[in-house]
Fold each of these.
Amino acid sequence: MLYDVVLVGGGIVGLATGYKLISARPDLKIAILEKESQLAKHQTANNSGVIHSGLYYKPGSLKAINCIKGYHELVNFCKEEKIPYEITGKVVVATRESQRPLLDMLLERGLQNGLTGTRKITLDELKAYEPYCTGIGAIHVPQTGIVDYLQVALAYGRKIMQQGGGIFLDHKVLEINQKDSINYIETSKRTFQAKLVVNCAGLYSDKVARMNDESINDVKIIPFRGEYFKLKKEREYLVNNLIYPVPDPNFPFLGVHFTRMKKGGVEAGPNAVLAFKREGYKKTDVNFAELAETLSWPGFQKVAGKYWKTGLGELYRSFSKSAFTKALQELIPEIQEDDLVEGGAGVRAQACDRTGGLLDDFAIRESEFAINVLNAPSPAATSSLSIGGTVAEMVLKRF
């Protein structure tokens, strides 16, 4: 069977793209290939569950545009599909004088991105939102929310199946070749034929990209593990909703924060440490070939040289619960080490170029036979329907 489009990767971005595509053109023959025995097992299932507002992203960037558009589409989808979600709002808190200008910059960005109602709040107002949180300045963002993204992704999958699309689990893509303008996609089980490949392979998106286009050799996925603790049940009262620090503007992570989860509980974290395996969710997970690839990448070497102090601090917090607790105490001084129990971990697929640039924006590359989504970290889950719509439009121009 010749498919019009084969999508590689059954995470939230791949599923959203498939859903948008088949909704626009039900006549197209579409298949999604997922190497795991279940959908959305990796970045999606290990997501913190935050519906991002678009506060952090440079106005006009793909992240800003897609996050804000995707936010509204996601909320509407959850309403239609009766997926539980809450718009909780969040506070972003400065704890040091040096952070005040950054807090002002964040507020300005939020307002430029259309976040009406986002504002500076007094310390008394901060206490009203989060009674146990302390700081020297804060902003409140009403648009932020919480949802279980695994439920969202599975709903996209159901919609695809209902409209005649194919989803193939346990199909790891091994090789992609072109002959007579057709892609031959060899998986661990069989070979698929498709007019067009759409690569949404997340942590392996760079490898799949090079299968279909050898010229894509200037970007590598660097895996960063984010480790979480959870608050003990009897201490969950310390957090009402979401509490964030002012992030380091030069480091593409938001810093350890507190998140009330839609599926229950309160998470604290994550840190951001180099994973020694692309799907390395534990400190002991090592793939020496993948680690060697990371360490030998010229871009990573430059990143390591630039951020070694920050990286050492993140690594220290990874192995020291007391150091992790100390970082959390900047926001909630009452937090004690024994309030925390080990939580889960996620691995972020962070694209890095040869020059040491950690790609800050979403990155999508087109070639004759494929469309490759090469960088789609947070807020990709919030933005999934918007990113999916963008990629679907690129696909439809070819049909």
Amino acid sequence: MSRLSRALGIEWPRNVLRDSFISYRIAIVQSADQVALEAGNSASIIFKHYRELTTPEVAEKWFSILPKQGQWENTLSYDRKKRRVILNGVQCQ
């Protein structure tokens, strides 16, 4: 994702999807132990850094994000051997 975001000129903070998942998941399930197990963190870290950063209502909206009509055609692939991202058939630097 870092390589793709650079190619598209988008700011992509380190661990943004992981941090977002943890923040929104803890808002929904209200269990640091469960989210720690799902995310591979300790419950104390989850509780310390992610608890009460958002609301369950906002979290539900985040987890329901889907592409708009007509955007399903976008394709993204990653060639692990060559370490290249390909978006709609175009290689990203």
Amino acid sequence: MMTFYYALGWAPSLVVALGFDPSQATIVSVFMNSGGAIGGLTLGLLSPRLGLRPLVIFSLAGAAAAVAVFGAVPPQLVVLQLAAFILGFLSNGSVVGLYALIANVYPTTLRATGTGAVIGFGRFGAAFGPFAAGQLLAAGAGRGTTSLLLALGSGIAALVLLASRIRPSDEN
């Protein structure tokens, strides 16, 4: 959530800081959100065939890489739009997949409570990501360093999920 909300919240400001006008930055956000919608849909369509957990791990790792790349791409509008689309595709796909994965882990009697607790905990990351980015940028860290550091949220989540033994609940 930290990585996702950093990208979603700061992308327009980062594009403006590169010298583009706010309307062009908005177009970059449209590309990111379009990628997100298609990424969530794609993950949903592929998960019955490829498995939800591997797709979420792939999406999380890809989102980490995409955030780092978005922080390093040259200030060319078409390149930023393409990077934003890929970033949205992977980061939103991973968030959608995490919600579905979490719901499948808990038995029916605990599903609402467990899922709500996990989503509530994720709100801390959602608040921390944009805040941390603001602090880093204000301290002069720059777009590349800030993006690389905020990519760690998705990267660590991918590693934790890869190393965990989280499996869907046997109870339907």
